[in-house]
Amino acid sequence: MAESNVGAQDLPDEVLTEILARLPAKSAGRFRCVSRAWSDMLSSDYFVDLHMRRANRPDRPKLLLTAIGSSYDGYLYSWQLGGEVDKLMPDEFGGEVTVPLTKPCRGLILVRVRTDDGDGGYYVFNPSTGAGDDDPNHDISPARAEVFVLDNTSGYWRPSAGNPPLCSVKKKDPAVFLNGYMHFLCVDGGIATFNISDETFGSLLLLPPGFEGVASVLTELDGCLCLCNGEPDSEDPIHVCVLRDYKEARWEKLCCIDRTAWPESERTLLDSLWIAPIGIYDSGCRQKIMFGTGEPRAHGGVTIEDMICSSPTTEAWFDILKWLPTRSVVEMRLVCREWRAISMTDSFIDSHVIHANLKRSPRIKLIVDPRVGTYMDLEEWTDEYCGLSLRNNLVYSQPCHGLNVGSCQFWDFVCNPAISYCKPIEFDDNDGTFFAGRIGLGYNSEICKHVMVHITYKTKNLETRHYELQCKMKYVDDGYEWDPINPPPRPVAGIPPNFVNGKIYWMVDPNIGPVSAGCEVIAFNVETEEFEVLQGPPCTYGSGHMAILELQGTVCISYSDQNRNTVDLWMMKDDGTWLMEYHIVLDKLTEEAAPLAVDPTDGRILLNTGWSLGYYDPRTAAFETIYTMAFPNIKFCPIVCHESLLYPLN
């Protein structure tokens, strides 16, 4: 025993502190009785902060439960994932119902107590130790704002430093504390804020798309402010968004839960007047969301992805449906709820856009009106559909993981022609000058997000070659402000950019900026968010038309010469050198002739000659026309699209 005591005394203080910090709160509290030194150590602010970090495992959240109605027995309960429900402490708040309102804030929880006569109030206490404020804090008048101060002697109310905003907050919904602010959900769906440092009020002006003016629940999830909407007692989807970037007000759609795919027994568990996410925890290689409801139960979110992995039949249907064309998948959604749920998951949509386009001939649609998402398959097109929009300037990108972007005179758009989806994008800095290279689209495979980059000229002088660019970027599904980034180091030409293997490529404009002996290319890395200048192919700018595009997974530049009726196609090799892969000679070309795609089934090149569409066979040098415009004076707009179910910003 003596040797054991000596060993304990030799244990370094920092190691001892780490051990005690991992104990339950009650156990750590008891050790304060060991000695004055231990009491001082375990009562210090440093240890209290360390204990909150070490003793609360994110993968095993602990819940405070209260029974209601006939189940009420005068106790508060606790439950930890994977364990049993335990009695925590007697309910000594003196009411008929005690309802937890907030997540712990440095260990303290706010509860509301209701009595038969409608009285009661609010209490602050520590469920780990049972300590708290014994005096109820009753509702205060909405005409003023007061602050309740908790100190070591007694609590008291005092007026706040700032005046409250002119808004009506939801009386029964508690505020959410995060990043030094209290957040109050307003009746109109907005969020009022209160800075606890200077006691001033403010508001969050931007809400996630679809959350304006709808009934929502405000909470904290994964260290972020969280909004959740969806009627608990209906079969409507449940939408969950989190505020990932507080300063820039950037919301991220975390999930959309389709309850119609659940078994009836699972759906009846959510027949409640209230439902909200209360925590995220790791379950193996996946993260799960835990939801709380108005009923005395909590639910670990069983996602459709989990159902797919756990059911061989469902997994088999997943693998079958992902190879089908978009139109077929949409029709299959009507077969049963299970197929509908499978086809609407993010994992299926991401897998479908890859598999449904493998070894498939390019799908061509003609643009009728991009403003309302009107596209027609080539087989259904007749020249009577040539609308006013086709007489104006209109350019577009090749498909990028299921989406395209394009530009018109006064606005840009992101679209998925396969499902007739189009979202206009308007800019404050658009002066009405058409610039074909102003918007680029890429895909960040690390975070599975589409990236848009917008470039405009603030100044451009062809005589002095002086210019000034401004550049900004955003993720397609964010729906809010663009983030300014450093502009490219060269001026970009009025040629639509395209995305290849993690980078968006633009042609450099040779008419302004520094004089270059050869053709140059600008590349934007969507992961590092940086530009670089690359040497282009050994061709010179002339009277012909140049285009930059992706063919067979490679960066390509085409140069069409109307005087010679030729199209030269250059491909960039892995070492950065360029090789003229094809020299195409045709009977007739228009000014803006360019390749659109390569058919993976036979290697033929799909060409837009400006007045016709056709396939050029490099082996035979033959050109097969598949469509000819009846009115050569009207520009028609073919767009290559992917089989895709992507439907962002909605």
Automatic annotation (TrEMBL):
InterPro entries: F-box-assoc_interact_dom (IPR017451), F-box-like_dom_sf (IPR036047), F-box_dom (IPR001810), SCF_F-box_component (IPR050796). It holds the Pfam family F-box. Gene3D superfamilies: 1.20.1280.50. SMART domains: FBOX (SM00256). Residues 5-50 form the F-box domain. PROSITE patterns: FBOX. NCBIfam families: F_box_assoc_1. This is F-box domain-containing protein.
